[in-house]
Amino acid sequence: MKLEKNDISLLFSYTDIPDIFFTEYLSQANGDFVKVYLYILFLSKYGKDIKVNDLAKKLNLQLKVIQDAIKYWEDLGVITKKNTGYILNNIQEIELHKLYKPKVALSADALNKTAQNQYRAKAIENINNEFFQGIMSPSWYSDIDLWFKKYAFDEEVMIALFRYCFNRSALHRNYIQAVADAWFKNNIKTFNDLDVYYEKQEKLHKICKSICKKLGFTRQLSEYEEAYVSKWTVDFGFSLDIIEIALKKTTSKANPNFDYLDKLLTDWHDRGFKSANDIQSFLSELKQKNKDVKVLEKKTGYNNYDQRKYDNLNNLYANLNL
After folding, report:
1. Vertex 113 angle, CA 111 and 118, to 5°
2. Are 36 and 55 in contact (CB under 8 A)?
3. Hey, which of 8, 50, 54, 136 would disulfide with 128, CB 3.0 to 4.6 Å?
């Protein structure tokens, strides 16, 4: 007796997707990559043999996108290439292994200490409820615990870290760790440290915005240009009024780039200038010196440039609009 499968059964069938897919993979994957994974997950139930070209036509995606998607999931270990095709791995087993592996590396004392730290446990609970709707993946617990140890953040800073990334729609491990690295390099440990850091960043942002306006930029400063501004304001301690002097004094140059501005401001810093008055006095003296030299040249009719006692940065001020 031959039994045949009723075609209408497809209407009542369903494809299981573990919850761990939504907490660990969905938010970090490209939308088209998710589309490819879900479809091959569906096909895997029936043992279907489908070519990459056919998959591209079926999903209305470019062939390159299909290839990139397959490589993406393969790199994550979600699928494994075989001689005859691909096999879909159990993502629950993958996450269980990842969850177990970091715990093995932690000492028993460290785990006990973490368990006994009520403040830290409360912070993790707040992160779970505020940013993961109470369904945070188990692997996040190990990551947060490791970040506490690596960066020595207090509980308020750790919560602020997640809030910062969440507000930027970037609640991904790589992004969170990148921000944490930046905070750590700026010696942030406590919430008070973070407040000071925010104040500096806000001041920097306002100065960058003002510089863009004064230079007539319709764009934001690039990462490298912001690094220059950070150097002038943080390292040199210069205020906007000092930077503005440099901007005004370069109006005679066709393209006053940031490299030139940096040389000018670095010279003022090396000379020990602290205020706008110091710099204005220096520029006035330099202007008067140039006038005296021109008067002397006019009287004598002799131009001996080699004997001028200019400093090493004479070329910097040679064409400056004094």
Report:
1. 115
2. yes
3. 136
pLDDT in tens, 212-230: 888 888 888 888 888 899 8
Phi and psi, residue 220, nearest 5°: -80, 160
Structural element, H or E, at residue 197: helix 191-215
Question: CA–CA distance from 292 to each of 184, 287, 299, 305, 306 (Å)?
Answer: 53, 9, 11, 14, 16
More confidently predicted of 95 and 302: 95
Span 91-113, pLDDT tens digits: 777 776 666 554 444 444 554 55
Sequence ranges of the domains in the chain = 12-92, 107-189, 195-318
Which residue has 């779970």 as its token pair?
128
Fold (CATH) for 12-92 = Arc Repressor Mutant, subunit A (1.10.10)
pTM: predicted TM-score of the whole model, two decimal places? 0.51
What's the pLDDT score for residue 153? 92
Rounded Cα–Cα distance for residues 44 and 263 (Å)? 63
So what's the pLDDT on residue 308?
A: 47
Instruction: Give the C-alpha distances (Å, rounded to integers) separating 72 from 32, 89, 90.
Output: 11, 14, 16
Assess if CATH 1.10.10 describes domain 107-189.
Answer: yes
